[in-house]
Amino acid sequence: MRTALIALVIAAVAAPGGAKDRSSRVPEAIPTGKAQSCITTSRIRQSHVRNDWVIDFEMNGGQVYRNTLPFACSNLEFEQSFAYKTSVGELCSVDTITVLRGPAGPGPTCGLGEFQPVKLVAKH
Question: In the prediction, which pLDDT does 20 show?
Protein backbone atom coordinates (compact mmCIF):
# COMPACT_ATOMS: atom_id res chain seq x y z
CA MET A 1 0.00 0.00 0.00
CA ARG A 2 1.38 3.35 -1.01
CA THR A 3 1.13 6.11 1.56
CA ALA A 4 1.55 9.67 0.46
CA LEU A 5 3.37 12.01 2.75
CA ILE A 6 1.02 14.79 3.68
CA ALA A 7 2.52 18.09 4.71
CA LEU A 8 0.13 20.41 6.41
CA VAL A 9 0.75 23.94 7.51
CA ILE A 10 -1.31 25.46 10.24
CA ALA A 11 -1.28 29.22 10.45
CA ALA A 12 -2.73 30.01 13.81
CA VAL A 13 -4.97 32.97 14.42
CA ALA A 14 -3.00 35.54 16.36
CA ALA A 15 -4.52 37.00 19.46
CA PRO A 16 -4.69 40.79 19.61
CA GLY A 17 -1.94 42.57 21.51
CA GLY A 18 1.77 41.95 21.90
CA ALA A 19 3.57 38.77 22.87
CA LYS A 20 3.38 39.70 26.56
CA ASP A 21 -0.43 40.00 26.32
CA ARG A 22 -0.80 36.63 24.58
CA SER A 23 1.22 34.84 27.29
CA SER A 24 -1.39 35.73 29.85
CA ARG A 25 -4.25 34.90 27.49
CA VAL A 26 -4.25 31.12 27.64
CA PRO A 27 -7.97 30.57 28.15
CA GLU A 28 -8.98 28.51 31.11
CA ALA A 29 -10.15 25.07 30.00
CA ILE A 30 -12.08 22.25 31.65
CA PRO A 31 -11.14 18.69 30.60
CA THR A 32 -14.11 16.89 29.04
CA GLY A 33 -12.68 13.40 28.64
CA LYS A 34 -9.60 11.26 28.57
CA ALA A 35 -6.50 12.61 26.81
CA GLN A 36 -5.80 11.05 23.42
CA SER A 37 -2.51 10.21 21.73
CA CYS A 38 -3.73 11.29 18.25
CA ILE A 39 -6.25 13.46 16.45
CA THR A 40 -7.41 13.13 12.82
CA THR A 41 -5.82 15.83 10.67
CA SER A 42 -8.75 16.06 8.25
CA ARG A 43 -10.99 17.13 11.15
CA ILE A 44 -8.77 20.06 12.24
CA ARG A 45 -10.58 23.31 11.39
CA GLN A 46 -7.96 25.64 12.85
CA SER A 47 -5.38 25.95 15.56
CA HIS A 48 -4.74 28.64 18.14
CA VAL A 49 -1.20 29.10 19.44
CA ARG A 50 -1.69 30.30 23.01
CA ASN A 51 1.98 30.58 24.02
CA ASP A 52 5.25 28.66 23.60
CA TRP A 53 3.74 25.63 25.39
CA VAL A 54 0.03 25.49 24.50
CA ILE A 55 -1.82 24.95 21.21
CA ASP A 56 -5.60 24.52 21.01
CA PHE A 57 -6.81 22.51 18.01
CA GLU A 58 -10.39 23.36 17.04
CA MET A 59 -12.04 20.50 15.18
CA ASN A 60 -14.94 20.39 12.74
CA GLY A 61 -18.01 20.18 14.95
CA GLY A 62 -16.54 22.48 17.59
CA GLN A 63 -14.55 20.06 19.79
CA VAL A 64 -11.31 21.58 21.10
CA TYR A 65 -8.20 19.56 21.92
CA ARG A 66 -5.54 21.27 24.02
CA ASN A 67 -1.98 20.16 23.43
CA THR A 68 0.49 21.16 26.12
CA LEU A 69 4.00 20.63 24.81
CA PRO A 70 6.42 18.89 27.18
CA PHE A 71 8.95 21.71 26.66
CA ALA A 72 8.63 25.34 25.57
CA CYS A 73 8.91 25.77 21.80
CA SER A 74 11.03 28.87 21.23
CA ASN A 75 9.33 31.58 19.15
CA LEU A 76 6.10 29.61 18.66
CA GLU A 77 4.05 32.30 20.39
CA PHE A 78 5.81 35.11 18.52
CA GLU A 79 5.49 33.53 15.06
CA GLN A 80 1.97 32.13 15.62
CA SER A 81 2.46 29.49 12.91
CA PHE A 82 3.89 26.01 12.55
CA ALA A 83 4.05 23.06 10.18
CA TYR A 84 3.97 19.31 10.61
CA LYS A 85 4.29 16.23 8.41
CA THR A 86 2.35 13.03 8.71
CA SER A 87 1.79 10.02 6.48
CA VAL A 88 -1.07 8.44 8.42
CA GLY A 89 -3.73 11.18 8.53
CA GLU A 90 -3.30 11.67 12.25
CA LEU A 91 -1.29 14.08 14.35
CA CYS A 92 0.06 12.26 17.39
CA SER A 93 1.91 12.95 20.62
CA VAL A 94 5.02 11.29 19.14
CA ASP A 95 5.04 13.80 16.25
CA THR A 96 6.83 17.13 16.05
CA ILE A 97 5.97 20.61 14.81
CA THR A 98 8.34 23.12 13.23
CA VAL A 99 7.94 26.83 13.89
CA LEU A 100 7.60 28.82 10.65
CA ARG A 101 9.61 32.05 10.52
CA GLY A 102 8.67 33.45 7.10
CA PRO A 103 11.61 34.27 4.82
CA ALA A 104 14.09 33.45 7.61
CA GLY A 105 13.32 29.76 7.07
CA PRO A 106 12.14 27.10 9.48
CA GLY A 107 12.56 27.63 13.20
CA PRO A 108 12.87 25.12 16.02
CA THR A 109 11.29 21.68 15.87
CA CYS A 110 9.40 20.69 19.02
CA GLY A 111 7.63 17.60 20.32
CA LEU A 112 3.90 17.46 20.99
CA GLY A 113 2.10 16.28 24.12
CA GLU A 114 -1.19 14.41 24.40
CA PHE A 115 -4.40 15.92 23.05
CA GLN A 116 -6.74 16.75 25.93
CA PRO A 117 -10.39 17.33 24.96
CA VAL A 118 -11.49 20.53 26.70
CA LYS A 119 -14.25 23.04 26.98
CA LEU A 120 -12.92 26.59 26.99
CA VAL A 121 -14.24 28.68 29.87
CA ALA A 122 -15.84 31.92 28.66
CA LYS A 123 -14.80 34.98 30.65
CA HIS A 124 -17.62 37.25 31.77
Answer: 42
